[in-house]
Amino acid sequence: MGAIGLMRNPLLCLLAACIAALAACGKDDKKAATQVAAKVNSDEITVHQVNDILARNPNVTPELAPRVKREIVDRLIDQQLAKQQAIQRKLDRSPDILRAIEAAKSEILARAYLQEVAAAQEKPTPDEVKKYYAEHPELFAQRRLYVLEEIALAPKNSITPALRERVMKAKSMQEIAEWLKSREVQYAVNRGARAAEQLPLEMLPKLQKMKDGEIELIEIGDRVTVVRVVATKAEPVDEANAAPRIQQFLFTRRSNEAIAKEMKRLKEHAKIEYLGEFAAGAAAQAKPAAAAQTPKDGQAPDLGVEKAVRGFR
User: Fold this and answer.
1) In terms of C-beta distances under 8 Å and separation of at least 24 residues, what long-range contacts does 294-300 make, across chains too?
2) With bands split at pLDDT 50, 70 and 90, how would you rate the model's confidence at 162?
3) Is 105 exposed, middle or buried (0-12, 13-18, 19+ CB in 10 A)?
């Protein structure tokens, strides 16, 4: 959120200011020597603050950097002015503000710990990257662009067995849609072009076997989709271009697994007690929730792989 958005919300304005103050907690009273970008009454805006914000915007080109820095400084000035007014009006003593500051502090510290856990993981080796590339030809060496027609049904639909038989005999998607409509079955129709990495990984092996014009019923978990391949086009990605994104994906997956394992360990060694209205059913929900969040040893779903490989082309 920019400074203008902060000025419109005094709570967020003061919260942003207090978060910045929290970052300085525990440091020496002696202020480290630093360049000053601007002064707002008695307060300073440092070049370090500007560079921190600039670093969170990696798409800024060197040519645009000077102008963007100036805009950042202007926004920080607006923010500082709003902060000073908030303190002058004693908004920092408001119970709502104090609760927001505490919530922000908890979130910042928790995120910092999880980032530390993630950063401690080993980077994937070239052999691991090579292995992943070889194991997923549908995403790389045999990558395709698909034009698909889809009819998606509501999860756990009891009509699936009958629909499967109907799909085997159908000559068009319109025929299937009319059949579903006659039975008052809710469904959604979609048509579009998508690359392999934009599709569920479980669907790709089945799509690769289908010919243009072919219709199939595909089940993934509790989702049922009737798919017609309108057209396909080969768009392979070589290993050299794929390697950096595969490495990032594998590292992210490894980090997520480590975080899930660490959270499981912390819960097992902590005394956690649900009270009041939250006590009922808490124990029953704990086991399935933990099982869903913790991957088995040596296994990990390829959720999010489309984000890792998107942008190869």
Assistant:
1) 294/260, 294/261, 294/264, 295/257, 295/260, 300/253, 300/256, 300/257
2) very high
3) middle
